[in-house]
């Protein structure tokens, strides 16, 4: 595995706020924890406490941002959950705290859902994304760790990430990275359209399960690559584990990353400025889930005419730089496809501002340089 930490470029659009490596910090139930900006820790809520709150230090974003997506890695046993909030600083003034999601591995107790009807003079939240009406220069995040009175387990928070607007792209197709030429990772192929519906209430069933299908493929890849069979989960299990009843679908970006983290993987949502960012990961053996959007005729070879939002796996690149994907909407036998580089990059950058899920075994993903401004 190549060392991506030394010179990997896209540091300005991601802040990693809390990463568990050693030791832990327990809540006392009355105070917000504000660890030093450079600290490395894990937050746990231990009985008999029923709630505790982590609050990050203020993080500046020198280039400014208008959109932000929070994601997290956690363990939430039955009866426990985590609530993530975010606020932004605009011209020296703080916005209100926006609720970015309530997360629990279990759906049955009602603690997993996004929060709708959040809009004010500063911005709005659409499921998993905060969109501000003007540029912000800094942010803070909060994480409330919660447990029901009869819960036996302890929720823990290992990582929070905030992805802001990507910088450095002018929208033109990028050149191929030498290390990614001809690289095609053996990601297992799975079709969302052949998945058996677990429940008609899970966002419309297989036809709408592009995101959990992509997560299932990535988890199966790492299960095989690391001889860790427990990571190989079905599309149905991933759909059940990512469903957001308020959004009424399985496409909540941070919920998909959190689902993988509940199984012991690590990851976050990030935004990149071009395909060269993905190529560095693929060259190191790390496939990526990308979010795209396209109109009719904009993505040659796709099994759909157009899409208002779709997730798929980028598994490699041809010698000329075209994009090799696992297309979850395709039927078996046609899942591995090659999309034209310029067309794919346009569908990805204009469709989601270069949004990706990065999911891998702990410690394998590159850490952003703290000198990047966060």
Question: What does this molecule look like?
Answer:
This protein is an alpha+beta fold and 374 residues long. The chain has five helices and 18 strands. It has helices spanning 210-226, 235-242, 253-262, 275-283, 341-352, and strands at residues 14-16, 25-26, 32-33, 43-44, 51-55, 59-75, 80-90, 93-94, 98-103, 123-126, 129-147, 156-164, 266-271, 288-294, 307-317, 323-326, 336-339, 355-360. Strands 1, 2, 3, 4, 5, 6, 7, 8, 9, 10, 11 and 12 form a twelve-stranded mixed sheet that branches. A six-stranded antiparallel sheet has the order 13-18-14-15-16-17, sandwiched between helices. It is globular and about 55 Å long. Residues 1-12, 18-41 and 368-374 have low confidence and may be disordered.
Topology:
Blueprint: E1 14-16, E2 25-26, E3 32-33, E4 43-44, E5 51-55, E6 59-75, E7 80-90, E8 93-94, E9 98-103, E10 123-126, E11 129-147, E12 156-164, H1 210-226, H2 235-242, H3 253-262, E13 266-271, H4 275-283, E14 288-294, E15 307-317, E16 323-326, E17 336-339, H5 341-352, E18 355-360
Parallel strand pairs: 2-4, 3-5
Antiparallel strand pairs: 1-12, 4-12, 5-11, 6-11, 6-12, 7-8, 7-9, 7-11, 10-11, 13-18, 14-15, 14-18, 15-16, 16-17
């Amino acid at each position: 595995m190549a060392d991506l930490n030394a010179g990997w470029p896209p540091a300005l659009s991601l802040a990693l706020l809390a990463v568990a490596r050693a030791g832990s910090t327990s809540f006392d139930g009355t105070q917000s924890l504000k660890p030093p900006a450079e600290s490395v820790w894990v937050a746990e809520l231990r009985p008999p406490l029923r709630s505790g709150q982590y609050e990050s230090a203020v993080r500046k974003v020198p280039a400014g941002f208008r959109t932000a997506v929070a994601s997290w890695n956690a363990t939430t046993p039955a009866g426990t959950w985590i609530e993530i909030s975010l606020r932004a600083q605009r011209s020296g003034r703080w916005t209100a705290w926006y609720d970015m999601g309530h997360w629990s591995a279990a759906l049955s107790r009602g603690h997993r859902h996004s929060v709708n009807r959040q809009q004010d003079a500063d911005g709005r939240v659409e499921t998993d994304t905060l969109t501000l009406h003007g540029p912000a220069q800094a942010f803070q995040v909060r994480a409330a760790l919660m447990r029901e009175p009869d819960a036996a387990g302890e929720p823990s928070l290992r990582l929070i990430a905030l992805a802001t607007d990507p910088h450095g792209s002018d929208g033109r197709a990028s050149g191929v990275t030498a290390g990614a030429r001809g690289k095609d990772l053996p990601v297992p192929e799975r079709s969302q359209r052949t998945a058996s519906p677990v429940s008609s209430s899970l966002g419309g069933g297989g036809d709408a399960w592009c995101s959990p299908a992509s997560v299932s493929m990535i988890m199966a890849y790492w299960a095989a690559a690391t001889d860790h069979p427990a990571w190989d989960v079905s599309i149905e299990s991933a759909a059940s584990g990512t469903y957001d009843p308020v959004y009424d679908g399985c496409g909540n970006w941070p919920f998909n990353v959190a689902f993988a983290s509940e199984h012991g993987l690590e990851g976050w949502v990030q935004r990149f400025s071009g395909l060269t960012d993905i190529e560095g990961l693929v060259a190191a053996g790390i496939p990526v889930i990308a979010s795209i959007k396209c109109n009719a005729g904009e993505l040659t070879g796709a099994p759909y005419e157009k899409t208002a939002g779709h997730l798929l796996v980028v598994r490699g690149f041809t010698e000329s730089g075209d994009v090799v994907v696992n297309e979850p909407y395709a039927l078996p036998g046609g899942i591995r496809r090659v999309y034209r580089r310029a067309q794919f990059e346009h569908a990805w950058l204009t469709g989601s501002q270069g949004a990706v899920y990065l999911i891998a075994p702990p410690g394998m993903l590159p850490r952003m340089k703290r000198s990047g401004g966060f």
